[in-house]
Amino acid sequence: MLEYLPLIMFGVVCAVLMLGYPVAFTLAGVSLIFAGIGIYAGVFELQEMLAYTERAYGIMTNTSLIAVPMFIFMGVMLERSKIAEALLHNLAHACGRAPAGLAISVVLVGTLMAASTGIVGATVVTMGLMSLPTMLKRGYEPALACGTICATGTLGQIIPPSIALVLLGDVLSSAYQQAQLNLGVFNATPISVGDLFIGAMVPGIVLVLLYLLYLAWIGVFKPELAPPNPDDTPPPISELIKSIVPPILLMVLVLGSIITGQATPTEASGVGALAATLLAVARRQFSLKALASVVRSTAKVTTMVFAILLGSALFSLVFRDLGGEQLIHGFFHDLPGGTFMAVLIVMLVIFLLGFILDFIEITFVVVPIIAPTLLMMGVDPIWLGIMIAINLQTSFLTPPFGFALFYLRGVAPQTVATSAIYKGVIPFIILQVLLMVCLALWPSLATWLPNLLR
């Protein structure tokens, strides 16, 4: 019974989180309780807890994590500057005469916002408020309209600069170092958040193209679901360029500096935060009141992330010292089917946990447990990170508990049935699963560009 204590602890954490208790305090509290049980049962040494101070100090001094508040600041500032609103207005009128043109413009705007903000909830809510009433007014099927908005909003999960990729990159970097040390490799090439950013670019572009092809197919073969608007007047080219250029410049500034090696993700996040502020000033949306609001929002989210980080560090310490790592390692190695079956089971578990846990919780609780074992089995860390990110993105959409569905339900008109939201996301879930299958068959989709630029 004692050998399964780590798994019981994991189960208790998930159960308490489902009851709605704060994540950080749940992780820390349950870990302390099970550490006490382990001490009483003689399977955990009290002095092992001294290592927690080093872990906490390591989190606070981790320069990669400075990118988290900077990217959050950048995203919130862009949201307040109303860049997405102007961009959607102009693109919608530019594409409105074509079948499914409005839906296509929503995907294009969402892609640019994902490449500029990386915050899923904010993108779904913003796009829902701005585009859903217009799509319904123009005769779009509610399911198609809701599915397009939800799927587009979750692109921030995989398209850099994604907060999810920043956190995943830090966790996988530590897991990769640990796995290499366990294998006796002391000079392995480290992976970074920048590697994940670069690795996610090709899969992200492929996913956007799949969305656009699906909507184009709807426009051609089922135009009654997404009718064109012949009364739309395309905006002047100057207006269109004026609305498109700022987010593209910001994307090039942030991602371009990372790809070319001119800046680390942390440095690029600072540049992005400053650029977003300057864009707000240029659009006359900046004020001290607005700045204070952005700083407060950034502080709240950053505090939550780092509190969860500290709680998860205690959880992983207790889990590992109770023998959880050996238990997981033995389970995966005893599986028939080897590495393929191990990865498949992990992906299924993460997908199911995505129904009840947020991506931050899964990143800090589940990934540190399973990643070292999978990496020791020869799985590429960049490929694994991209697969996990897309998997979590899929769980954001999957009924009945997908977080993106809840976000849209909160801002959608009451005339839109919840069943329509659920129905609308199914084709986009299939497209995301198709992308995961493609990545499984051709891992170079995620690894080719990082290896080329190293």
Automatic annotation (TrEMBL):
Residues 10-444 form the TRAP C4-dicarboxylate transport system permease DctM subunit domain. The chain crosses the membrane at residues 20-44, 56-78, 98-129, 196-220, 268-286, 298-319, 340-370, 382-408, 420-442. The keyword Methyltransferase does not apply. It holds the Pfam family DctM. GO terms for cellular component: plasma membrane. Its main location: membrane. One of its GO terms (molecular function) is transmembrane transporter activity. It comes from the Bacteria. It is a multi-pass membrane protein. Keywords: Cell inner membrane, Cell membrane, Membrane, Transmembrane, Transmembrane helix, Transport. It is found in: Cell inner membrane. Belongs to the TRAP transporter large permease family. Part of the tripartite ATP-independent periplasmic (TRAP) transport system. The complex comprises the extracytoplasmic solute receptor protein and the two transmembrane proteins. This is TRAP transporter large permease protein. It comes from Saccharophagus degradans.
